[in-house]
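REQUEST FORM: STRUCTURE PREDICTION
Request ID: SP-0412
Submitted by: Lab K.M.
Chain count: 1
Length (residues): 416
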Amino acid sequence: MASVLDDVRIIEVGGELGGWCGKLLGDMGATVIKVEPPEGEVTRGYPPFYKDEADKNGSLYFWHYNTNKQSVTLDLDSETGRDLFLRLAEGADVVIDSSAPKYLDSLGLGYERVSEVAPDIIYTAVSPFGQDAPFSEYASTDMTALAFGGPVWSCGYDDHSIAPVRGGGNQAYHTACHFAAIGVLTALVHRQFTGEGQFIDVNMHAAQNVTTEGAVYHWLVAGDTVQRQTGRHSSPTPTANVQIVCGDGRYVNIGFPARTEEQWLHLLAWLDEHGLVGDLSKYISPPSREALIQRDPDAIRQMEEVMDAVRELCLANNAHDIFVRAQDLGFQWGIVYSPEETLEDRHFVERGMKVPVAHPELGAEFVYVGAPYDFKETPWGIRRRPPLLGEDNEAVYGELGIGVEELEAMREAGVV
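STATUS: Completed
RESULT:
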């Protein structure tokens, strides 16, 4: 079956900031040609490595971000390399550029030049602060962007003597790439109707700022500053701690214990089964969220009583039993899973999130993580493992009419 982006050809150039965008689009079926310097893109040197052996083709970090991509090597500082890049771009639909702002412009390979040879090109530049903003020349890592953009302010623990916490997993890079992928898809639709390409300027810093949940708007609308809380939403006013240890030492995250009168009655009955309902039966409804926000003493007292009883309930059971029973009763409670527990969860497995990918050069098969969406008519899929460095030089450059002897000469000259 055809994938949704089967007829889209993408040139990806730059570093780690744009890698996730290329993977997202490649996994949807696009042909993604990753243009690397002759020594390889920097993330090929990121640990951990397969069998703990440093190898440009063995970085597990690189593997994760580069499924379904082809790899060609090219020295863009050489005249021949620049000419080849323009020839590649001429046959492409999209360029994803995550190199330093204006770097490709300085080589004569920016949007203005590329659009001369490919007028309908969708040129997507992903950078820390945008191409022309006041901080556009500033450097940034994932952690810098999360801190400077706002999310880190909202992440951490109730104990504010402990520093803010950065979320793991390259969230800043991913957020910027999600906006970039959305921009590319939107621009492709626009081009279908108009025939026009365009330049897309993705600003990682801004992408963080608009994904701070309500933190920014609390300040803009009410002048309130949210405070970090352990394992739950940041808020201008503290809420009850909802990560609770169970009898087996594992944690559940219970959120607001009961949101409706029906849930409240279910919770009371469950507590009563364990002899824990106590005086809570005098309350005909759960504590009011609005009253808690307004710091109403009666609502706070009721919430404290509820949470004391729920903590006892959790200690009397293991985490999985608490999770299953709570979900059966309609509560939004969940187990705090470790990574290996997530991978083996029945729901995760049955959704097809464990995807076997063959690495023929290693004579082995490895499990990769699948997609959180399911296209029925144009399916997602990992069609190919991450590319070896430059393994597609002959095929891709051959399409440009470059023969084996010419390619070998360019290799000897350091162009590829």
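NOTES: The CA atoms of residues 76 and 83 lie 9 Å apart.
Reviewed by: T.R.
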